[in-house]
Design brief:
heterodimer, A: about 140 residues, alpha+beta, B: about 450 residues
Chain lengths: ~140, ~450
C-alpha cells in the first residue's frame, strides 16, 4: 500500500511508502487527494507540470504537498496521480513532476475534509530496508 | 525552562493530558526567549505543532520572540455569537427551512464559494486592511455589529503588502465561506442561564434563539502561517535561538522577520473577522427569509466575536508594573474583566463575553472575563472541547449508522457537504465541554453565564 491513514486525534496523518523516493512523493500526492475526496473517482483528464526545490527532503515534501493544495484551492484541480522525479544537486533537492487530474466537481466528487496545510509535525522521511517511508500530518 | 509551566485542569483531565506530548510542549514553550511569568495551558489542552493547543504564552514586547506556531495555521479562528428576539417556539415550525436557507447562503466544505462575492485584488487588500469594517461598508452587516467584536473586527498594524500572492489567491474566492472539519454555523437556544445579571447585560434570555459561527481565515491565513513558518525556521538559526522543537520556529518581535509576521498575521486576522461578519450577515438574511420577515424584525445582533488563535499586544501588570506583552493564544480566548478599556462599553459592568463552542449534540457556553484571568493567565480562558476520538476512529464508530438520522433523533437538524464530516464530528468524538468550562469557572478565570443547545447545524 503506497499510503495508509493512521489515527491522530485532531488532524489527518498518513504513513507513506515507496520503492524509490520518487514513488514516495507520488504516494504523498495520492494521500492528499484521498483526504479531500475519493481519489478513485478522480479522472486523469488534464496534466500539468510542477518544479520545486528545497534545502532538505522534508522541506521538499511539505512544499510539494502545499503546492498541490494551492492548485486545488486556486485552480480547483484534484490530482489523481503523477510521475515524480527527484534529484539532489549539491545541497539542494529538486523535484520535477507531471500531475494528472481534473477539476473538482461536487456532483461526482464526494466532499471529505479540507486540508489547511501539510505540516512538519512528526515529519520523518527515511530510507529503511530498501524502501522509503514518511509520516506526514495534514492540519485539518 | 525560563519560567514555570502552569496547567489548569482537574485530576481526571490531568491523567488524560499526560497520555500525549502536551505537557512536554508546555515545557518546551517555557524555553522561548522573553517569555513572561509562565507557559500556561487551559483545561482543553492537547498537543499541536510546537505550542500545545489550549496554550497561552506572553512575551516581552521588546526582548521576546513571536512564533507562528503559537498562533496556529488558522489565524483568527474564532467564534461569533448572534442573539435574536426569537424564541424556540417562534421558529420550531420553520427550523428545517432556516437550516436549508443557511446551507444555501453560506458556502461550506470542499470547493465552496459564493459567486456573488468574488474579490478583485484591490477589494481583498481593503478586506485585509479593514477587517469586519470592510464588510459593513459593503452593506454586509451593520455598524453596530462592530461595537461588540474583539478589536472591533480589525487588528491594527495589518499590512496587506506582506501577505503573499499565493495567500491572496487562496483568499480571493474564500471570503464568506465556512470551511470544513470542526467549523460550523449552528442555530441554538438558550437552555440555562447561570448568571442572570450578566446574561441580561449580554441580551440573553431563556429559550432565546442564538446562532454561533465557528470559522477562521481560510486558505489565506493558512498560507500566511505556512509562508512565515519557513522564514522563521531560518531566522531562528540566524538569531541563535536554540529551540527544543523546530516547530517553535520564531524570531525576535522587534526583528524584521518578527514585524513582518505580525503585520501579515494581523491582515489574515482581519480577513477572518470579515469572514465571520459576512457569514453572520447571510445568516441574518437566511433566518429572516425562512420566517418571511424583514431582517431587522428578527432582532439578530452580535453578542460578541472572539479570536482563539492569535498574537496580540496587550498590557498587563507584572510584578507591580505595567508591561506591554505580545500574548500568543492558540486555542485560547481573551477574557477581559469588567471596566477594562478593551471590554465593550455595553458590557463594561460585567466583563467581556467568552464564547466556548462544544460539539453539535450537547451544548456550548457563554462566559464572562474576570480580574483573576488578568492576574493569572494574561486575560485568557479556554476555547472549546477538544477531540477524544481521532477522525479515523470516529468514522469507524459511525460505520453502518445514519449520523443525520441520529442527530435528528437528538433534536438537531444537520445539513452538511459530506457525510464523512458529520461522522467525524459526531458528539461522541468530543470531550464534554462542560468539564472544561467548569474548570475555568472553578479557577475563577471566567464566569459561567449561559448554556446554549444546538437545534440546527450546517457543516462543510
Amino acid at each position: 500500500m503506497p499510503y495508509h491513514f493512521i489515527d491522530h486525534t485532531a488532524d489527518v496523518a498518513a504513513e507513506l511508502s515507496g520503492r524509490t523516493v520518487d514513488e514516495l512523493f507520488r504516494s504523498a500526492a495520492q494521500a492528499l487527494t484521498d483526504t479531500v475526496t475519493d481519489r478513485a473517482l478522480v479522472n486523469r483528464v488534464h496534466s500539468e507540470t510542477v518544479s520545486l526545490e528545497a534545502s532538505s527532503i522534508e522541506d521538499l515534501l511539505v512544499d510539494w504537498l502545499n503546492e498541490l493544495l494551492y492548485r486545488f484551492e486556486v485552480q480547483n484541480l484534484l490530482v489523481a496521480d503523477g510521475e515524480v522525479s527527484l534529484r539532489a544537486e549539491g545541497d539542494r533537492w529538486h523535484l520535477d513532476a507531471v500531475i494528472r487530474g481534473e477539476d473538482f466537481d461536487p456532483s461526482r466528487h464526494p466532499s471529505r475534509v479540507l486540508v489547511k496545510s501539510a505540516t512538519y509535525h512528526s515529519l520523518e522521511v527515511v530510507e529503511r530496508g530498501g524502501e522509503w517511508h514518511a509520516r506526514i500530518v495534514f492540519d485539518i | 525552562m525560563l519560567v514555570d509551566g502552569i496547567v489548569y485542569a482537574n485530576e481526571r483531565m490531568m491523567r488524560d493530558i499526560q497520555k500525549d506530548e502536551s505537557l512536554q510542549q508546555v515545557r518546551n514553550v517555557a524555553h522561548l526567549p522573553g517569555i513572561v511569568r509562565a507557559s500556561i495551558a487551559m483545561p482543553d489542552i492537547h498537543w499541536g505543532y510546537g505550542f500545545p493547543i489550549g496554550g497561552v504564552a506572553a512575551m516581552d514586547a521588546d526582548q521576546g520572540v513571536v512564533s507562528p506556531g503559537g498562533v496556529g495555521y488558522d489565524i483568527n479562528c474564532g467564534v461569533r455569537l448572534l442573539r435574536s428576539t426569537l424564541t424556540r417556539e417562534d421558529i420550531a415550525p420553520h427550523l428545517e427551512s432556516i437550516v436549508a436557507e443557511m446551507y444555501r447562503n453560506v458556502p461550506t466544505g470542499v470547493g465552496a464559494h459564493r459567486r456573488d462575492l468574488r474579490l478583485g485584488a484591490q477589494d481583498l487588500r481593503r478586506v485585509l486592511a479593514k477587517g469586519a469594517g470592510w464588510a459593513v461598508s459593503q452593506g454586509l452587516g451593520r455598524a453596530e455589529d462592530l461595537e461588540t467584536v474583539e478589536e472591533r473586527g480589525c487588528i491594527a498594524g495589518a499590512d496587506p503588502d506582506l501577505v503573499s500572492d499565493r495567500a491572496e489567491e487562496r483568499g480571493r474566492t474564500q471570503l464568506g465561506t465556512l470551511g470544513s472539519g470542526n467549523h460550523f454555523a449552528e442555530i441554538q437556544y438558550v437552555a440555562e442561564i447561570h448568571d442572570e445579571r450578566i446574561a441580561d447585560a449580554f441580551g440573553l434570555f431563556e429559550d432565546q434563539i442564538t446562532v454561533m459561527i465557528h470559522s477562521g481565515s481560510r486558505g489565506l491565513g493558512h498560507q500566511v502561517c505556512t509562508d512565515h513558518l519557513r522564514v522563521m525556521g531560518e531566522a531562528s538559526r540566524r538569531y541563535g535561538i536554540s529551540l527544543p522543537d523546530r516547530q517553535l520556529a520564531c524570531a525576535p518581535i522587534t526583528s524584521p522577520e518578527g514585524r513582518r509576521y505580525l503585520a501579515a498575521m494581523a491582515a489574515a486576522a482581519n480577513f477572518a473577522f470579515a469572514n465571520r461578519q459576512v457569514m453572520a450577515h447571510w445568516v441574518r438574511e437566511s433566518v429572516a427569509s425562512a420566517l418571511g420577515l424583514a431582517p431587522n424584525r428578527t432582532g439578530i445582533a452580535t453578542v460578541y466575536d472572539v479570536c482563539h488563535n492569535i498574537a496580540k499586544f496587550e498590557t498587563f501588570t507584572v510584578d507591580g508594573r505595567a508591561r506591554r506583552l505580545c500574548v500568543h493564544r492558540k486555542g485560547a480566548t481573551r477574557a477581559y474583566p469588567p471596566h477594562h478599556p478593551g471590554t465593550p462599553a455595553a458590557y463594561r459592568e460585567v466583563g467581556q463575553p467568552v464564547l466556548i463552542p462544544g460539539d453539535m449534540g450537547r451544548y456550548s457556553y457563554v462566559m464572562a472575563g474576570t480580574n483573576r484571568a488578568m492576574d493569572e493567565t494574561f486575560g485568557s480562558a479556554c476555547h472549546g472541547a477538544g477531540r477524544v476520538m481521532s477522525r479515523g476512529e470516529a468514522k469507524r464508530a459511525v460505520k453502518g449508522r445514519s449520523p443525520f438520522d441520529e442527530m435528528k433523533k437528538r433534536g438537531v437538524h444537520v445539513m452538511a457537504a459530506g457525510i464523512a464530516t458529520v461522522a467525524e464530528e459526531m458528539p461522541e468524538a468530543y470531550k464534554d465541554v462542560s468539564d472544561v468550562v467548569n474548570v475555568v469557572h472553578g479557577a475563577g478565570l471566567a464566569v459561567r453565564v449561559a448554556q446554549l443547545r444546538p437545534i440546527g447545524v450546517i457543516k462543510g
